[in-house]
Amino acid sequence: MKRSCSMVLVFILLTIVPLTAAADCPTLVKQALFATDSLCKDTENNQACYGNIRLQAKPNPQTENFVFSQPGDHANISDIKSLQLSPMTLDTGEWGVALMHVQANLPATSPNNLLLLAFGDVIIENTAPVPTTLDVQVGNAFVNARWLPNTNSRTLIALKPGQIATAVERLADRSWIRINLPDSGETGWVKTELLTVKGDLNRLNVANATQPNYRPMQAFTFTSGADKQNCAEIPQNGLLIQTPEGAGEVKLWINQVVVKLGSTVYFQAQSNGDMVVTTLEGHATVEAQGVSHTAIAGSRIHVKLDAAMAPISAPSLPQAYQMADVQNLPIQNLQRKIHIHPPLTEQEIASLQESQTDNCSVVSCEGNNSNCPGNSCHNGTNNNNGNGGNTDNKDKDKDKDKDKDKDKDKG
Which residues lie below 8 Å from residue 282, measured CB to CB, with a gap of 6+? Predict the structure, then answer.
């Protein structure tokens, strides 16, 4: 955590003192976004920044000395359990803004994280477990890291003799350990007996092998207020999420819906209503109830939610959005400058929907898909692993030299 103490910060803080009742909403929005941009410009990877009043943060139970109470405060996102932002209140000059840099499934060596900007009446709760790590070392022989914790699963990489890796989870019986793959944002499974564990193995989180390993704020639930203010200049309550330049596709689990994006996307969600995924540039693929659809720039997708913010429908086919719904979004606060794509035309939407009509399930309606935690892609067997789109059936087809490969699992 850190606080700035310069005269510049003092000036900025003065600009975000609650405005009088006579203040107009364009001025409030302008001041809030200027303050956020100034106060949060030095936010580090895997950190959150308090941008503008008012914001209530709850720490994870084991977090000590947690300070995140005023604009300019920073905190590690692994220490945060939830954030609640204030809606627009002209009488007090409040309009909550928070910014986060989230690693998600990007490599730890990536210079830039995914950016998440929350504004207005928004509640975010981190549903990823508090991370646990231990160093492990390979013995005197090459060792396989696999998609799933069994020797029939596809080999991802072969770890070199003596190589050190970071373990993040284990099976309940401690027979397999999940590690961060070197130079990658992904994970793989290694037999415990082939590794030297540097510490107490029981400290690692116990994993469900059918679930992905989500990092802090890579999996979260969120709601955004449905009330609209009588002010055209106010961005409506929600989240803007942007992937860094050249990062490829980033995977998130939002309200138990898998979202894979390589783009800038605007999210809104209400209980007993819809989660709306609006793609401003690039693309976003949305997976729920075993169905996957992609919204390209100029379109949006809806997923119906229950009172607990869980999906109760498959994603809709992409639809065009209204420019009035996106034109005031605070894209100037993003790390990568963009232009909001105009809404797709009726002809473009018809062509896009037709191209996706036959896509009845995630990637394929056959077998078990790895990108579908929980009930988001359940097909009766649910042997998924969350490491990037490969199935065990495909794994078996690709393992051409199994006898030699299995030797590396025997030590």
Answer: 243, 261, 262, 263, 264, 265, 296, 297
pLDDT-derived band at 378, boundaries 50, 70, 90: very low
| Residue 358 pLDDT | 65
Burial per residue of 81-106, b for 16 or more beta-carbon CB atoms within 10 angstroms, e otherwise: bbbbbbbbbbeebbbbbbbbbbbbbb
92's tokens: 């007090």
* DSSP three-state, residue 373: coil
Please write the tens of the pLDDT for every residue from 315-349. Answer: 999 999 999 999 999 999 999 999 999 999 999 99
Domain residue limits, the chain: 7-128+215-356, 134-211+382-407
Tell me which of 2.30.33.40, 2.60.120.1440, 3.40.50.2000, 2.60.40.770 is the CATH number of domain 7-128+215-356: 2.60.120.1440
pLDDT confidence of residue 182: 87
